[in-house]
Design brief:
The complex is a heterodimer. By secondary structure, chain A is α/β, with parallel strands linked by helices. Chain A has a single domain, classed as P-loop containing nucleotide triphosphate hydrolases (Rossmann fold, 3-Layer(aba) Sandwich). In chain A, 35% of the residues lie in helices and 24% in strands. The relative contact order of chain A is 0.17. Classes of the chains: A alpha/beta, B mainly alpha.
Chain lengths: 248, 291
């Protein structure tokens, strides 16, 4: 019996950390998400790609609780999050960054983390990790846009997320900064955090993700490795357009 | 004359800052304009009238009791109105209509129950005689109100800048969506801010009979106009700016009362228009740089 149980453990893959099932989000007559499914395992980095307006950020907003879905289920680590407000999803383990970071302007860099930090988090270590430690006492308005993005990431990390939703963090970073951020995200995954990374920069996505989900018009049109996605006819058509019919 | 006008202007400015502080706090946290603010002040004046004049309760107990009572009243008012309002498409605009309606309801009920007579509280209720400052004789209740205002500013400052809850309040004031996603319970923090705003209005109301001479159930709307001018001059959404706005409003008002009494209300409102034209974010409004 005991051996059988061990055998089951060996053969059954761990349950997904995040399970999103049949999410529908409508804005009036416009359907932004049309029955999206998504799973992310602990320690996995999933890239979410697609053209502008395909629903990537809307999906992140729905998962993090900023938007409520019209239909569908969301669970984290087996616990249903459907209907939970955003602050309780954060407490449950969902952290996120924003496409355009908006730090708390009246607070210093360090206070931006203090207000978010869970008990026992070493704020100085997190600040050092994103190389903002020497700016800790400064007002956030002194930071440039790249530093504000890193602060946004740090602010999400001090909430001790088990799932991190990263929305276009790489935009505007130079190659050195990109490499550092990629390394940081891989380290988070290695520590067991599941990541969903929305990004337009394909080389960055390729360097960090285990698999990608390609979205178009609120639907998933591809799920798998990026190298396979670029061979997929639907994906190519969405990004490059349909080929012109050849004249006879 | 000039010294008296400046001195009393600053004293009234501190009081006006107290009048506007709650409205500004509520706007800063919730992005709604509470046009029932003046009616909360009016209810605070009635509370003071009953406690101090009728029941002979001490001024200090009256101030503390009014603060606590209206803080508690503000919490259910918040949960009954504001979350529903914020789910609407135009919460800022709708808040004007909703709270103006609430203001009218409060005024009508108070008028029906207690009549429209002017009420006042004798100055001696607060104790003390006229105070001489720089050879200028100032009524003691004005000094009392200004001192209480300063104590309350200090308390609000300590709350906002030196407590975890206050830091959460400032985070929501800065970026509501981001605050939610880091786990801040926006409704809990906002309810406290609304309760605080209501309590501050009511405490300002305790001193309204002394600063304004008398009060009626219909003082709510003119008080709203004063509050709005004070917070806009300082900076809408910035409670610290309210003190500056109050001081400017108070000095302008007293200068006009001293030299052009028939036009007393003109200069403060001209200053308001001037500030809106030159610096629409208010004198302490910050220019936000987005990434």
């Amino acid at each position: 019996m005991a051996d059988g149980a061990r055998a089951d453990t060996r053969t059954t893959p761990p349950p997904p950390l995040l399970r999103v099932t049949g999410i529908v989000k409508r804005f009036g007559g416009f359907t932004a998400l049309d029955g999206i499914d998504l799973t992310v395992r602990a320690g996995e980095i999933v890239g979410l790609i697609g053209p502008n307006g395909s629903g990537k950020t809307t999906l992140i907003n729905v998962v993090s609780g900023l938007l409520s879905a019209n239909a569908g289920e969301i669970s984290l680590d087996g616990r249903s999050l459907t209907g939970l407000p955003a602050h309780r999803r954060s407490a449950a383990g969902i952290g996120r960054t924003f496409q355009i970071p908006k730090p708390f302007a009246s607070l210093s860099v360090r206070q931006n983390l203090e207000v978010a930090a869970r008990d026992g988090v070493d704020i100085d270590a997190v600040l050092a990790d994103v190389e903002l430690d020497r700016h800790a006492a400064r007002p956030v308005s002194d930071l440039n846009s790249v530093s504000q993005k890193l602060l946004d990431l740090a602010r999400a990390l001090v909430t001790r997320p088990t799932l991190l939703l990263v929305d276009e963090l790489a935009c505007g970073l130079n190659p050195v900064e990109l490499a550092r951020v990629a390394e940081r995200l891989r380290a988070l995954a290695a520590a067991g955090i599941g990541l969903v990374v929305v990004e337009h920069l394909m080389s960055f996505i390729d360097s960090i993700t285990d698999r990608v989900v390609v979205m178009n018009a609120g639907r998933e049109i591809f799920g798998g490795r990026l190298r396979d996605a670029v061979q997929d006819r639907d994906v190519v058509e969405v990004f490059l357009g349909a080929p012109e019919p050849v004249a006879a | 004359m000039l010294l008296y006008a400046l001195l009393t202007g600053l004293i009234f400015g501190l009081y006006f800052a107290l009048v506007g502080l709650g409205m500004n706090l509520v706007f800063g946290v919730m992005r709604i304009v509470n046009l029932a603010h003046g009616d909360m002040l009016m209810l605070g004046a009635f509370t003071a009238f009953w406690l101090m004049r009728v029941a002979a309760v001490s001024p200090v107990i009256t101030v503390i009791g009014t603060f606590v009572l209206f803080f508690v009243i503000g919490l259910p008012v918040y949960y009954a109105l504001v979350p529903r309002l914020q789910r609407s498409r135009e919460p800022e605009m709708l808040s004007l209509i909703l709270f103006f309606g609430l203001s009218q309801v409060i005024e009508a009920i108070v008028s029906l129950l207690f009549g429209n007579n002017e009420r006042s509280i004798p100055s001696r209720t607060l104790g003390g005689g006229p105070v001489s400052i720089f050879d200028q004789t100032i009524p003691f209740p004005w000094i009392y109100a200004a001192c209480v205002s300063v104590v309350i500013f200090a308390g609000v400052y300590l709350y906002l800048y030196h407590t975890g809850f206050g830091r959460q309040t400032r985070a929501i004031m800065a970026q509501r969506e981001e605050a939610v996603t880091i786990g801040i319970d926006v409704h809990r923090v906002s309810a406290v801010a609304f309760g605080l705003g209501t309590a501050l209005a009511a405490v300002a109301g305790v001193f309204a009979p002394f600063m304004l001479g008398s009060f009626t159930p219909s003082i709510g709307v003119p008080i709203d106009l004063v509050s709005f001018a004070v917070v806009v001059i300082g900076s809408l959404g910035n409670p610290v700016g309210t003190i500056l706005g109050g001081a400017i409003y108070g000095v302008c008002l007293m200068l006009m009362r001293t030299y052009f009494s028939t036009l007393a209300d003109l200069l403060p409102n001209l200053v308001l228009i001037g500030v809106l034209l030159v610096r629409p974010t208010g004198l302490l409004g910050r220019t936000v740089r987005h990434a």
